[in-house]
Design brief:
The complex is a heterodimer of chains A (about 350) and B (about 375). Chain A is of the alpha+beta class and about 350 residues long. Chain A folds into 2 domains: about 180 residues, Butyryl-CoA Dehydrogenase, subunit A, domain 2; about 160 residues, Butyryl-CoA Dehydrogenase, subunit A, domain 3. In chain A, helix 6 packs parallel to helix 8. Chain A is globular and about 75 Å long. Chain B has about 375 residues and is α+β, with helices and mostly antiparallel strands. Chain B has 13 helices and 8 strands. A 4-stranded mixed β-sheet of chain B has the order 1-4-5-8, covered by helices on one side. In chain B, a hairpin with a 5-residue loop joins strand 6 and strand 7. The chains are: A alpha+beta (about 350), B alpha+beta (about 375). Chains A and B meet through helix 6, helix 7, helix 8, helix 10 and helix 11 of A and helix 5, helix 9, helix 10, helix 11 and helix 13 of B.
């Protein structure tokens, strides 16, 4: 399944998500043509169970799609739609066609079939038809809800550093399109964890593209009568970049591969930390090697680097996830340390502190 | 592109199944082994411990059963060695034989050579060192001058090796020497020999390191006569054989676990209620450790599939060494504890020792600059 997804999405992005198209969408322009192609192909239903009309793909199967979305700097919530539909399906609800996003940082209360509260920094919140969120019922039990975006009572617009919409949506007694209790085994912060996993994969993809671009530039750009890539000073920098890009790739892949039964908390936390650090190092070296041309709007380097700077902080920075990990580790003590690491895939988010000191 | 070589590989269940047994064995056998000695990691020498591991079948376990191994596969070995390293077990005696020399002999040796060397390696009784560097040939290994000249049924060795870890404790050295003139290519004309270190004409002198330890040595060959079957592999193909070993040498968990004793004592010294900086740094390091382990496992999978992941192995070693070397620095950042050679807490003593050892991590097994040069070549820059 994975090979089919990867090959198809690669073609689609190559045709439609060109640098000019991506740049044109910055600032909140909805990529109607691109989204129509994604939606028509049924990609957003990949993680929905077969019983509910999806492909029942695993996260391991979906890794390549999310990574490709990063590599092509796709200006649309593909990962968010995959995550939203996966969660709906886990809760026994039907997947949602059309444009879909997730609300991760929320204070939402569900009373009967109506939701009130606020959803912060919803990716493409101003554009999408619907969003998936986890709301609290009056009894405190978490519930998966599907909300129609145009039922929001207030929309506060915001853009991340790459010009991607991250809008606040307020709801006042908004009627839900669907709801179901959050399945046992999933944490109330499942969407934060899923969001971190998505950004890790997108970061890994963007780093790969950035490394290709920078190595190519170093091979072609001539100074002092030879390619700048023939200088050891440049080679050593690019080697460090390559190591970081490789680390980011395997960390993100591990997070998806180990999310077989729910989401693999510790593995995802490690992925967000490793990809965040790699993003910082990689973007810095890419700009250093490119020189002034990389600082222009015309040259497409910034399409990648500005997204790396945005994604590394979304759904928890490397610092936040490090702190959560560190608190758990110190709590457990040194004897438990190595056993904890070697069983990383079985360490759920509930063991990680939600709000570190 | 080269970075696509890294794909995630989960440890197979049958390898994972060994973990509980080796953990229990370590706990029982090393119950009283102090943390200050555990800090030596794979430089800790204890022949008795190596023999006990051999008796369990955990040395040379990936080698064929016909030669005393278990044909257990690289992942089973991985679980065993990572548990040993994480615990700081004294594995130095058999380390090189298990990691490198045994697989080399198995790959390039004749049946007679395998019969002669491998069973004792698997029993944890036969120890090897690697003779590569010479006084004027460090990173530029191809410039070595030590040589072997054919004389009837034997070879006569002359020259000097240096920085040879464990030569003073080893039975054999696998030495890379010149057996012919440099041809068109500078890597031609070298061969590998298994040299019995008890032979006449060999002088071994330990070199004390900056912390007073004796791990590496100078080794002198003065008309050392070795039999024809000391040659391992093909005459003149020494460079290719050495290069084939490097992925094994550079991708294992010993390239990022050298400071485990410090990390563990640091966690306890910080205690159960860390401040924000302490939890962030310990969490950050642990995330990196997990990622390094996944990279290392990925290279292991490639080696198991018969591939030649020299590029990926260089990434593991360089990133791993940076990680290991960062640990004493982070420890200083998190706690106001003076390192102590003597006296002080266990943590202070482990910190003092590993602060001094850290520079060696990126020297042994290929320097940082050489590794990054290999990585740059993989990016098409050289």
């Amino acid at each position: 399944m994975r090979e089919l997804f990867d090959a198809t999405i690669e073609r689609l992005f190559t045709d439609l998500a060109t640098p000019a198209y991506v740049l044109g969408c910055e600032g909140g322009e909805w990529p109607a043509e691109l989204w129509a192609a994604i939606d028509d192909s049924g990609f957003t239903f990949a993680g929905v169970s077969e019983a509910l009309g999806g492909a029942e793909a695993s996260w391991a199967d979906m890794y390549g799609m999310v990574r490709a979305a990063g590599r092509f700097t796709v200006p649309a919530p593909l990962g968010e739609a995959l995550l939203g539909n996966w969660l709906l399906s886990q809760a026994g609800l039907e997947g949602r066609a059309g444009s879909l996003s997730v609300a991760v940082n929320t204070v939402l209360v569900l009373e009967a079939d109506r939701v009130s509260g606020i959803a912060h920094a919803v990716p493409w919140g101003r554009n999408v038809d619907a969003i998936v969120a986890v709301a609290s019922t009056l009894s405190g039990a978490p519930s998966v809800v599907l909300l129609q975006r145009n039922t929001a009572s207030e929309v506060t617009l915001a853009l991340n550093v790459a010009g991607e919409p991250r809008d606040d949506l307020s709801f006042t007694d908004a009627q839900v399109l669907a709801q179901a209790p959050l399945p046992a085994g999933l944490d109330a912060r499942v969407l934060e964890l899923g969001g971190a996993m998505l950004r890790a994969a997108q970061t890994a993809g963007a780093l790969h593209a950035l490394l290709d671009m920078t190595a190519n530039y170093a091979r072609e750009r001539q100074q002092f009568g030879k390619a700048i890539g023939s200088f050891q000073a440049i080679q050593q920098q690019l080697a460090v970049f390559a190591e970081q890009a490789a680390a980011a790739g395997i960390a993100a892949e591990a997070a998806f591969a180990e999310s077989t039964d729910g989401l693999a908390g510790l593995t995802i936390a490690a992925a967000k930390v490793s990809t965040g650090e790699a993003a910082s190092v990689g973007a810095g070296i890419a700009h250093s090697v490119h020189g002034a041309i990389g600082f222009t709007e015309e040259y497409p380097l910034h399409l990648l680097t500005r997204r790396l700077w945005a994604w590394r902080s979304e759904f928890g920075s490397a610092s936040l996830w490090s702190q959560r990990l560190g608190e758990q580790i110190c709590q457990a003590g040194s004897e438990a340390y190595w056993p904890l690491l070697t069983s990383h895939s079985q360490q759920p988010l509930t063991r990680l502190a939600s709000n570190p000191a | 592109m080269a970075i696509s070589q890294f794909t995630y590989s989960r440890l197979p269940a049958e390898a994972e199944a060994l973990r509980a047994e080796v953990r229990a064995f370590i706990q029982k056998t090393l119950a009283d082994y102090p943390v200050t000695l555990r800090a030596q990691s794979w430089m800790g020498f204890d022949a008795e411990f190596s023999k006990k591991l051999g008796a369990k079948g955990w040395v040379g376990m990936a080698l064929p059963k016909a030669y005393g191994g278990a044909e257990a596969g690289p992942f089973a070995r991985y679980v065993i060695i990572e548990e040993l390293l994480a615990a700081g077990a004294p594995v130095s005696a058999h380390w090189i034989a298990d990691r490198q020399s045994g697989p080399l002999i198995n790959r390039f040796g004749t049946d007679a050579q395998k019969q002669h060397y491998l069973p004792a390696i698997c029993r944890g009784e036969s120890y090897f060192c690697i003779g590569m560097s010479e006084p004027n040939s460090g990173s530029d290994l191809a410039s070595i001058k030590s040589n072997a000249v054919r004389d009837g049924d034997s070879w006569v060795l002359n020259g000097q090796k240096v920085w040879t870890t464990n030569a003073h404790h080893s039975n054999y050295m696998i030495a890379l020497v010149r057996t012919g003139e440099k041809q068109a290519a500078r890597h031609d004309g070298m061969s590998q020999f298994i040299v019995d270190l008890s032979l006449p004409g060999i002088t071994i002198r330990p070199i004390r390191d900056l912390a007073g330890g004796e791990h590496f040595n100078e080794v002198f060959f003065d008309n050392v006569r070795v039999p024809a079957d000391a040659l391992i592999g093909s005459e003149g193909k020494g460079w290719d054989q050495v290069t084939a070993e490097l992925a094994f040498e550079r991708s294992g968990p010993e390239r990022f676990l050298s400071c485990m004793a410090l990390l563990k004592t640091l966690i306890d010294a910080v205690g159960k209620t860390p401040d924000a900086l302490q939890s962030r740094e310990i969490g950050r390091l642990s995330a990196k450790l997990l990622t390094l382990r996944n990279m290392s496992l990925s290279v292991t999978a490639q080696l198991a599939a018969g591939e030649h992941p020299a590029w990926a192995a260089s990434c593991v070693k360089d990133l791993g060494n940076v990680f290991e070397q960062e640990l004493p620095e982070v420890a200083q950042l998190l706690l106001e504890t003076d390192p102590r050679q003597e006296g002080g807490s266990e943590y202070a003593r482990v910190l003092a020792y590993l602060t001094q050892m850290a520079p060696s991590f990126s020297l042994r097994g290929g320097t940082r600059e050489i590794l990054r040069g290999i990585i740059a070549r993989g990016l098409g820059l050289r």
